[in-house]
């Protein structure tokens, strides 16, 4: 039995925690007052997403929903740094979009070769060797490692295909794909034979080829969830060209013009941009056509809208070569497959600043220590202006600046927050 086609998955990912710094002092014969030599903790492992071209579905994420990278190891004596946590590598099919589970914003479109760090591992804590000063030569404390990041994300596969076959069920889309490519979709004379998208590479001539996708039958109401169309309409989002396959045989008593307009209406409702994409019409099953007037009516209707119609019989291999050549010709003039830009904006985390704060002064340096400061600094990008403003605003709202001013801090004094030093500006 074939594995089910899975194209969406919601998972939780968490990077590793940083290892703790260690309190240690050098002990060696004939070495007096060796001093602190506690090593730093190792960095927590990252959660890295990479593209695997051998995968075609998100089946691997169907049952396992939580993924955690390795934690960094604690530091050791003799200034030995702990081992970094092992990165967790998630492999996804090309074309997978990573979205924030809450806001549905796009974090990353995995359509290129570059690995993407979804969650960064926590930084390792400093050992006591970093806290030795001329006035504090025996520091008996170290810092804990920072916690890793955690995210709830949705993986959404949008197939990377140049040409998408659309049309009602049982109009011959799967047969057409099997004829023009080496794909082997299930083919039978009943509706909804195709239950998931199929891809095939179409070779036109030396150096000319393209990828074609057979999208499961769309019916009226697909954009609201009727039939299978609601589940798979996303897979034609990237298609540069659409081939609309219409049954003109009259064997099922359907009107090809009504079918043509019904499918276009569903595309417009799902995405107006998609409905305006370049389209070629393939009038299929002409070899068993009972009433030529059906074909004439469809041709007049299609040409009135500025589209080109090809008479084909996929089963009899009639007219398919001309259709494929026309598709290849159109693709040469159309823009490349769409890659979605990231729309995700990192939200500042909520940090509880009500904890106890310890402030000590060493000459012109003020050392500020608080449990919540470590979490706050871990979420600040000091290379970004807005992130620094948020950091400054959080410190002011916590009352830290007011407390420092009450204790007599002056312009030009240095404030040290753990391992971060910056000049205080009144």
Q: Can you describe what's shown?
A:
The strands form 4 sheets. The chain has a 6-stranded mixed sheet, with helices on both faces. The chain has a 5-stranded mixed sheet with strand order 3-1-8-5-6, with no helix packed on it. Strands 15-16-17-18 form a 4-stranded mixed sheet. The chain has helices at residues 173-180, 229-232, 256-270, 272-275, 292-304, 320-333, 371-378, 385-398, 400-406, and strands at residues 8-14, 47-51, 66-68, 88-92, 96-100, 106-110, 116-119, 150-157, 163-166, 198-205, 208-214, 241-247, 279-284, 309-311, 358-362, 365-369, 414-417, 420-423. With 426 residues, it is α/β, with parallel strands linked by helices. The chain has 9 helices and 18 strands.
Helix-strand layout with pairing:
Elements lengths: L7 E7 L32 E5 L14 E3 L19 E5 L3 E5 L5 E5 L5 E4 L30 E8 L5 E4 L6 H8 L17 E8 L2 E7 L14 H4 L8 E7 L8 H15 L1 H4 L3 E6 L7 H13 L4 E3 L8 H14 L24 E5 L2 E5 L1 H8 L6 H14 L1 H7 L7 E4 L2 E4 L3
Parallel strand pairs: 1-3, 2-4, 9-11, 9-12, 12-13, 13-14, 16-17
Antiparallel strand pairs: 1-8, 2-7, 5-6, 5-8, 10-11, 15-16, 17-18
Strand order in the sheet with the most strands: 10-11-9-12-13-14
By oligomeric state, this entry counts as single chain
Given helix and strand content, the structural type is alpha/beta
Largest sheet: 6 strands, mixed
Radius of gyration: 31 Å
SSE order in H/E notation?
EEEEEEEEEHEEHEHHEHEHEEHHHEE
User: Number of helix segments?
Assistant: 9
The CA-CA distance between the termini, in Å, is: 71 Å
Q: What share of the residues does DSSP label as strand, in percent?
A: 15-25%
Task: Output mean pLDDT.
Answer: 82
The total count of strands amounts to: 18
